[in-house]
Amino acid sequence: MRLLVIEDEAPMRTALVETLKAEGYRVLAAEDGISGLELACTEPFDLALLDVMMPGLDGFALCRELRKRGKTMPVLMLTAKGQVDDRVEGLDSGADDYLVKPFSLRELLARVRALLRRKEREHALGNELSIGDAVIDFGRNMLHRNHKDQPISSKEAGMLRLLASHPGETVSREKFLDVVWGYNAYPSTRTVDNFIAALRTKLEKDPSKPVHLITVRGVGYRLEP
């Protein structure tokens, strides 16, 4: 697995690179957002770790630019800023997870492993998923139904991928927040319910009587393709 570390503080950058290499990863590093962006766009990586507070091009802007250029590798943001608004901005910019400094190296490695496992599961699912009379194209984040294309957000796509990777199983609201949002950035699991409601309007013939996105009371949701 090839990992990219973009961190402007030399001691932290060195510690991250050495720790990840000790775990068997192949690691390249950049000392600022601009050189990190150039490296990310010229070589393939399985995951990127981005510091938020960098001169020139900060982590938020860098992540948005990576997504804009079609780079889909998981992104783990590292920052000393721990407020909810900062976490939300990081996730909304396209990051998959968020780790607040100071953090333990054990937790960092656990987050990296989780993101890489998630990437492997998504790859195994392929780029298309059929649910009833709808076809979801994950490559374009598009849902095709009734001879029409409807865009779906990256969060909606992530929720459908998660449900599809657990066929016949109930996925808890907390699991959605942990895997799709990467970090519980919102104060209430009601966020998940709102996204499910939006997906039902796109997937179900009668959203008030869903047959595909099934509610499991008190727990979460189950997919019936």
UniProtKB/TrEMBL annotation:
Parts of the chain that traverse the membrane: none
InterPro entries the record matches: CheY-like_superfamily, OmpR/PhoB-type_DNA-bd, Sig_transdc_resp-reg_C-effctor, Sig_transdc_resp-reg_receiver, WalR-like, WH-like_DNA-bd_sf
Recorded GO CC terms: cytosol; protein-DNA complex
SMART domains documented for this protein: REC, Trans_reg_C
Keyword annotations from UniProtKB, A to Z: DNA-binding, Phosphoprotein, Transcription, Transcription regulation, Two-component regulatory system
Residue ranges of DNA binding: 126-225
Positions where 4-aspartylphosphate occurs in the chain: 51
Segments forming domain OmpR/PhoB-type: 126-225
One annotated GO molecular function: transcription cis-regulatory region binding
Gene Ontology BP, a term: regulation of DNA-templated transcription
PANTHER family given in the database record: REGULATOR OF RPOS, TWO-COMPONENT RESPONSE REGULATOR ORR33
Name of the protein in question: Response regulator transcription factor
Species this protein is from: Luteolibacter luteus
